[in-house]
Design goal:
This protein is an alpha/beta fold. Helix content is 44%, strand content 16%. The protein is globular and about 60 Å long. 42% of the residues are buried.
Length: 280
């Protein structure tokens, strides 16, 4: 009986997509970061969670550890060049390399105002934050990946990178910038065996601020904003499946894209928009 159990465990480990890989997840305490990190850990990766707040990182790490995953945490300011570089160097030295780097950091977006009423600073802030964090995180990981001749660098964007949506400030431009930067990194890193991909999602109901009861009207006729249910219904109407991307779907897709099963994919995004953005 023990031999049968051992063989089954061996079979399960052999089918893990990311067995023995080292994966760093920046913004690992957020909803997307947790979903991705959890999926990476379930697929056999050793996960390194990075973020600004140790308490929330510890909560995320506890969830992964309780599920049997291998996880470590570190406070990292993704806007600080030294902080990002030092952390990547430390992970690579301790783990023997970095196989996957996922950027799930926030952008400090400002929503709910038409551009006519928005300040230049509020519009450009998410663009500047997105460009800086993605560049620093990618460069730090790529320095190690190019030396080992392999690796996958990943980001997440949304329908606002392709659709014209009112009153979202600079968010769409920020996502456009991330995707464009991913393509440039991909063409420069490909000859070193490093892939660069991103996941494009819908809005994420599970990631909405749970402390809020009302949200911006986003160009609708609602004069006092929308309830959570109204906002979700508004986002669903733009999709072919009449539903929105789930965090579980993001995690599963991220694990697949990070694995050798997606080894021919680079300079491209996985369309997880439930049909809101048609394939090209």
């Amino acid at each position: 009986m023990l031999r049968v159990v051992d063989r089954e465990l061996d079979r399960m480990e052999a089918t893990m997509l990311l067995k023995d890989k080292n994966a760093v997840v920046y913004g690992g305490a957020g909803s997307v970061g947790r979903a991705v990190a959890g999926a990476f850990a379930r697929e056999g990766a050793r996960v390194f969670l990075a973020g600004r707040t140790q308490a929330t990182l510890d909560e995320a790490a506890s969830e992964i550890a309780r599920a049997g995953g291998a996880v470590e945490t570190a406070q990292v300011d993704a806007l600080d060049e030294r902080s990002v570089d030092d952390h990547a160097d430390a992970v690579a030295a301790r783990a023997g390399g970095i196989d996957v780097s996922f950027n799930a950091t926030g952008r400090d977006d400002r929503h709910g105002l038409p551009l006519l009423e928005m300040s230049l600073e509020d519009f450009t802030r998410p663009v500047q934050v997105a460009l800086r964090t993605h560049f620093l995180i990618t460069r730090a990981a790529a320095r190690h990946m190019t030396r080992q001749g392999s690796g996958v660098i990943m980001a997440v964007t949304a329908t606002t990178a392709r659709l014209a949506i009112p009153e979202v400030g600079g968010t769409g431009v920020a996502f456009d910038a991330i995707e464009s930067q991913c393509r440039q990194w991909a063409c420069e890193l490909g000859r070193h065996g490093v892939r660069v991909v991103w996941l494009q999602t819908t809005g994420l109901p599970e990631a909405l601020d749970q402390t809020l009861d009302r949200f911006p009207a986003y160009g609708t006729d609602a004069t006092d904003g929308m309830t959570r249910a109204d906002l979700v219904a508004w986002m669903q109407r733009s999709t072919s499946l009449n539903r929105l991307t789930t965090l579980a779907e993001i995690g599963s897709a991220a694990a697949f894209l990070a694995s050798d099963h997606a080894s021919a994919m680079t300079a491209t995004g996985a369309n997880l928009t439930c049909g809101a953005v048609p394939g090209r």
